[in-house]
What does this fold into?
Amino acid sequence: MLTGRYHLILTTDGRPSMHGWWGSEATAGDKFTEWVGDWGRPGARVTLVDEETGTVLTTWPEGS
It folds into this structure.
């Protein structure tokens, strides 16, 4: 269930493996950094999306 505007997605080998939703962009940005630190490895991708506008705000690795 969607509980916030900012959706964070971790995919591993092309499959979603973890999701999070936050109402604050600042909090979601902090979580993005945390997830990259915790889960960033070859085959992983972390994406932050503004669900209200459909805009991808940032991805790791960059440009992926």
Notes: The first helix runs from residue 25 to 39. The radius of gyration is 11 Å. The CA atoms of residues 2 and 52 lie 11 Å apart. The chain has one helix and four strands.
